[in-house]
């Protein structure tokens, strides 16, 4: 992987060393972009200050005074923006041609100052006429109060007195800048707070709980504005180009970091309200989706900040991303299961086959959903153990969601003995139907109770109904009530339940009578028994009534 201009500050130092090593002053031949830029900057240095020679690089025939002024302003634009010209990267041939336009143009700073470029005129290289026309506006934007705004505060006798490398007016400007920054931060952080509170006002907000989050957002917003203001006013100090490079790059990096932190804080505030809204909805899966969404947003913000900072450091981000992409492809091939689980997670969140708390059954696993994560889902089993299942398996399996049922099925086969008379069996089935009809939680439009089949050792009654309950515990309670009701009815009518047996019938035993049991077969008496049962127990029958 190749990085271009990664150590920009080291390159700056190399330029200083190369400049100091020049034994002779450059001759203004203007034969190449290198000579033109070098002449322009060399003859505006404090130790070699000859603006008349530097003005030769400005293409203004016959207007030397204006050319000199524009040459000085252009250097001040370079210095104020912290733009350091690396002479070793400038073309040193007369026949240089721009690869994009295929014209004799050269732009020293194509990203930062694309409007400043050199062009070849009559065999010599000058700053273009478009650059000459744009210099006053760029200088006015960079120095709104003029370059001598702070200098005029001092008398001529002390203007050029220096202390620790800086002039007196520069120290004064630095103190004013720091003091103004502190005051501005104090005021803005308090001005932004009610304004942000107004923007985030919602029925889901809680002032006491959100106070710290709002305060953090307001402070970070004030710091971002403060850094922007300092960066805009810093050129007024007219510091050396080396110092300006350090300060401007440092301020840009600090601003990028503060913007990232501000965006993360805003995400925290927005997600806090989103969580409260999710708690008011019926879908519990939203509460699991929001943490993942929050994490992804923060990752995107941080990655964006890192890429921006790398660009500030002149790192070849395209080559870096390409290298990372190749490595990511290799990693993805080695971690296919992880990718499948991520896709499975997306399918679960979009399809919503279940919610947190639902009872599910799939692939022999039965339990309650506890958490749906980015890679796996946690299920609490009956024995209170936790099973972690990859989302890929869940997304590709048939999942039975028992938690979304409105009705729970009660299905039984009631076997009575073969010696039960038909009239008694008929009355028993009618009593069972009445039991279901009078139960408050059974489904009245869809229940089936019929004499079904002749079993090996019993007469089988098909009993099926649905009960409307919301939990498994309630289901068990209602099943128990129905079971006790069936037992009571059978006991009052004299119906006996069969079980797998082998019976030996003997027509007559010595010294004994007939052992065949007797049943009540009078329909009127049987109806009275059924009526007495429901008058005695009512509905629903409770276990403690036994």
Beta-strand share of residues: 5-15%
- The total count of strands amounts to 13
Task: Give me the secondary-structure category.
Answer: alpha+beta
CATH topology description of the largest domain = Alpha-Beta Plaits
CATH class categorisation of the largest domain: Alpha Beta
Overall CATH architecture of the largest domain: 2-Layer Sandwich
Strand order of the largest sheet: 9-8-7-6-10
Q: What percentage of residues falls in helices of 4 or more residues?
A: 40-55%
Largest sheet: 5 strands, antiparallel
Q: Over all CA atoms, what is the radius of gyration?
A: 44 Å
Notes on the structure:
The protein is of the alpha+beta class and 546 residues long. The chain has four domains: 8-142, no CATH class; 166-280; 337-401, SH3 type barrels (Roll), CATH 2.30.30.60; 408-545, Alpha-Beta Plaits. Helix content is 51%, strand content 12%. It contains 16 helices and 13 strands. Strands 9-8-7-6-10 form a five-stranded antiparallel beta sheet. The protein has a three-stranded antiparallel beta sheet with strand order 1-2-3. α4 (64-80) packs across α5 (129-142) and α14 (422-438) runs antiparallel to α15 (472-493). The radius of gyration is 44 Å and the shape is rod-shaped. The model is unreliable at 1-23 and 540-546 (pLDDT under 50).
